Backbone:
């Protein structure tokens, strides 16, 4: 298979972890005889420095010319400390989502047996947990108009807005995913308060008629936030709007033991983007200590979701599992005998080769 992949390392630890994802892709391509080409482009604070634009037109062109996008992270402390900054790295991420039509963010939450003890949650609560969040990504309060300040500056407002069409396209993906899992979708909303949530409920309830094989239930987001900690095994496919999805997926990452473990896919109309859910983690940038598993697992999701390469994707996921089990992990997972970002990436590549020797 011949494919072109846009690589957007971005800010902070983005470049270091993305390099490990690319390494895994190269190893798999060589083994299975695929020809992947990689084209790099700037996004985030590095793009502001270079072009005064967090998502420059040139980067958009590279993305549009690609079959899939592998992305690292965005963000820089100099902007976090300056709420008045006119151009912000995060605008690059939001512009990228909107312009490329990345309407659904898929975030799998898995517990790893070897990491059960590092989670602050009790082992018996998180063991075997495996669910996936379908987060709407280009609507809601993140993008709704009007937004801004009153003339005298003493009042600020954001608008939460959803159309039926926006709700349906992400919901269809969630229902389809449930068919390949245990067949349950939980819609997380705040329908007791918000008009947008009531439209979500009504729309999703109607849509459920097209999926008689799927069980649908509803949960208020405050209750869901509690249940994710108390009984995460309850969930299978979680469907939710943009901001609720943002919040509950950071919360859910605690189940995996480290935010550094979680990958994600942002499904687009024409092409999709893959990124770890952790941010730019500036304190660790350039130190070769950041956890690359989220980025490597994002590369695995790219193979599955963008190219339909299920075997290849599975090989990377299994290689990550084996690497975790072998104890070659970064300091966020094991402070006492940690390995570097690169060492972990190399170990995953070695495991990919080992697995292929068994399977071929
Ligand atoms: C995420 C991030 C972004 C979001 C930020 C950086 C704009 O937290 O991808 O979850 O809120 O969507
Ligand atoms: Mn987030």
Residues:
């Amino acid at each position: 298979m011949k494919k072109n992949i846009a690589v957007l390392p971005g800010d902070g630890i983005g470049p270091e972890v993305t390099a490990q994802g690319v390494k895994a892709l190269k190893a798999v391509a060589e083994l299975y005889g695929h020809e992947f080409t990689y084209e790099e482009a700037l996004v985030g604070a590095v793009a502001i420095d270079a072009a005064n634009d967090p998502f420059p037109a040139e980067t958009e062109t590279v993305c549009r010319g690609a079959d899939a996008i592998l992305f690292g992270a965005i963000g820089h402390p100099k902007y976090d400390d300056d709420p008045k900054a006119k151009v912000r790295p995060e605008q690059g991420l939001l512009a990228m989502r909107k312009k490329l039509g990345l309407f659904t963010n898929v975030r799998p939450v898995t517990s790893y047996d070897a990491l059960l003890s590092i989670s602050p949650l009790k082992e018996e609560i998180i063991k075997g947990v495996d669910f996936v969040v379908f987060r709407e990504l280009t609507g809601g309060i993140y993008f709704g108009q009007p937004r801004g300040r009153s003339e005298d500056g003493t009042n600020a407002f954001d608008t939460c807005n959803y159309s039926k069409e926006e709700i349906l396209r992400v919901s269809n993906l969630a229902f389809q995913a449930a068919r390949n899992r245990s067949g349950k979708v939980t819609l997380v909303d705040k329908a007791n308060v918000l008009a947008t949530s009531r439209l979500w409920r009504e729309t999703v309830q109607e849509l459920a008629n097209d999926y008689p094989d799927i069980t649908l239930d509803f949960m208020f987001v405050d209750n869901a936030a509690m249940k994710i900690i108390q009984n995460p095994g309850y969930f299978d496919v979680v469907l939710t709007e943009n901001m609720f999805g943002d919040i509950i997926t950071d919360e859910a990452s605690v189940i995996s033991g480290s935010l550094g473990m979680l990958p994600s896919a942002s499904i687009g109309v024409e092409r999709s983007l893959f990124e770890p859910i952790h941010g730019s983690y500036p304190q660790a940038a350039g130190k070769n200590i950041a956890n690359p598993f989220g980025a490597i697992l994002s590369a695995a999701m790219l193979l599955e979701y963008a190219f339909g390469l299920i075997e290849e994707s599975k090989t990377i996921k299994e290689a990550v599992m084996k690497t975790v089990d072998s104890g070659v992990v970064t300091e966020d997972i094991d402070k006492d005998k940690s390995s570097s970002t690169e060492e972990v990436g190399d170990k995953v590549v070695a495991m990919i080769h080992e697995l292929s020797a068994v399977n071929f």
